[in-house]
Specification:
alpha/beta; 32% helix; Ubiquitin-like (UB roll); Translation Initiation Factor IF3
Length: 180
């Protein structure tokens, strides 16, 4: 799992101090200055002398990049940043509305109102028309129902998936238009 700082790994994947098992590392000191490529023992001594930890921040680099820093504080900051990013994410749910091809006008308006509410809440909506028995011979009626539903909707939305048959069902997916 990549973090957003320097392309390094998440805090649980980082190796510290004696866990770092390489011959030499590219060292960044506590002030953020490049100290160059040093043997691991010398880098560990520098970290201990400053009372901080040697943390491998980029293990995939050749040689691996290590930083001298307070690991506890670094881990706390990373966790805090992760929580902030999770708060900013919006969870989009997929709601489904089902109907039949021989739906009455009022019922279609009622379903359209529900679809509109779901879209206004920021959810994706899957609109499904279910065909039973001989209705399967007239799938064009399902397309007409879905087109009529689109005409009843007002507001901004995007058709994610155009109406298509999936077994006994014809469905389409609508997505709310993102606000900028």
């Amino acid at each position: 799992m990549l973090s957003d700082e320097g392309g390094g790994l998440s805090t649980k994947d980082l190796r510290t101090n004696k866990e770092i098992r390489v011959r030499e590392v590219r060292l960044v000191d506590a002030e953020g200055n490049q100290a160059g490529v040093l043997p691991i023992l010398e880098a560990l001594e520098m970290a201990q002398a400053s009372g901080l930890d040697l943390v491998e921040v980029s293990p995939k680099a050749v040689p691996p990049v290590c930083k001298i820093l307070d690991y506890g504080k670094y881990k706390f900051e990373q966790d805090k940043r992760l929580k902030e990013n999770k708060k900013k994410q919006k969870l989009v749910k997929l709601k489904e509305i089902r109907m039949q091809p021989k739906i009455e006008k009022h019922d279609l308006q009622f379903k359209a109102k529900h679809v509109q509410e779901f879209l206004d809440e920021g959810n994706k909506v899957k609109v499904t028309v279910r065909f039973r028995g001989r209705e399967l011979a007239h799938t064009e009626l399902g397309k007409v129902v879905l087109d009529n539903l689109l005409l009843l909707l007002d507001g901004e939305f995007v058709i994610d998936k155009k109406p298509s048959m999936e077994g006994r069902f014809m469905s389409m997916i609508l997505n709310p238009k993102t606000k900028k």
